[in-house]
Design a protein that fits this description.
25% of the residues lie in helices and 31% in strands. The strands form 2 sheets. The chain has a 7-stranded mixed sheet, sandwiched between helices. Strands 8-9-10-11 form a 4-stranded antiparallel sheet, with no helix packed on it. The protein is built from 7 helices and 11 strands. It is globular. The longest helix has 17 residues. A hairpin with a 5-residue loop joins β10 and β11. By secondary structure, the chain is of the alpha+beta class.
């Protein structure tokens, strides 16, 4: 029998700053990110966490969907009200990816890779992802709120992944689901600790050690231009560093 997210059990695994956050679990919702955005507009507190067993309209980046069937994964979103600058808040995505990857390694003994910027990979296939959204005010100078969603496939759905997902998606393989609450607790611990000390950028090392494609050639598309480069790491702003064929270093930001 699969384990469902349970606030009381999750709290047993929390430590430090994480003990003070608000946690709510629900069975089914359209999207944890969408719901936390709605709650943000209604004044929901920082730091709040919403966890769902199933999403009917799970969100991915660039308008894509995130397949979120019942009881096969971790689907959760944090609501934050940062005092950090908008530039500092751009680290939330990489911070969340590092938090999830480190927690999975601690709990399940599985070392994931991170595809820059926001995808978690296992064996060459996507096993999870991060979606960060924010609302700015004061002419873009203040972050009113930010929502950070984390989705992880714990086990394959009955009958396997549908359609094109069969070729690109995978799961941690924990079919009994018995690690869910412990894993969520560990993600929360890592995430909140990094968040409280965001400007120290301690997550960058964890992220860098798991960077997918390091020292490999990639193809970059910028509008109609296309070129190749060798991935050599990320910089202190979490931008991707590549070496072009002529030896020059080029920095890519997440908008590219």
């Amino acid at each position: 029998m699969k384990e469902c997210a349970d606030e009381k059990i999750i709290r047993k695994y929390l430590s430090g700053y994480a003990k003070d956050i608000k946690i709510e679990t629900v069975d089914t919702i359209d999207s944890t990110n969408d719901e936390m955005r709605r709650r943000a507009e209604k004044g929901e507190r920082e730091i709040s966490l919403l966890i769902a067993e199933e999403q009917t309209k799970g969100k991915g980046t660039k308008g894509r969907s995130f397949f979120s069937p019942e009881s096969t994964g971790v689907y959760m979103s944090f609501l934050l009200r940062p005092t950090y600058t908008p530039q500092e808040c751009t680290f939330l995505t990489t911070m969340a990816a590092a938090s999830a990857a480190k927690a999975i390694e601690n709990v399940a003994g599985i070392k994931l890779q991170i595809k820059w910027v926001n995808d978690l990979y296992l064996g060459g296939k996507k096993v999870g992802g991060i979606l960060s959204q924010a609302h700015l005010s004061n002419g873009g100078k203040k972050v009113e709120w930010a929502v950070v969603g984390i989705g992880i496939n714990l086990s394959e759905p009955e009958g396997g992944f549908p359609g094109e997902l069969k070729e690109i998606a995978t799961a941690l393989g924990k079919k009994d689901g018995k690690i869910k609450n412990r894993l969520i607790g560990e993600i929360v611990n890592e995430f909140v600790l990094y968040y409280r000390n965001l400007t120290q950028k301690e997550f960058i090392q964890e992220y860098s050690e798991r960077l997918l494609g390091l020292n490999e050639e990639i193809t970059v598309k910028e509008g109609e231009e296309e070129y190749k480069g060798i991935v050599v790491g990320i910089d202190e702003m979490c931008h991707l560093k590549i070496i072009l064929p002529d030896g020059r270093e080029k920095i890519l930001n997440s908008a590219q």
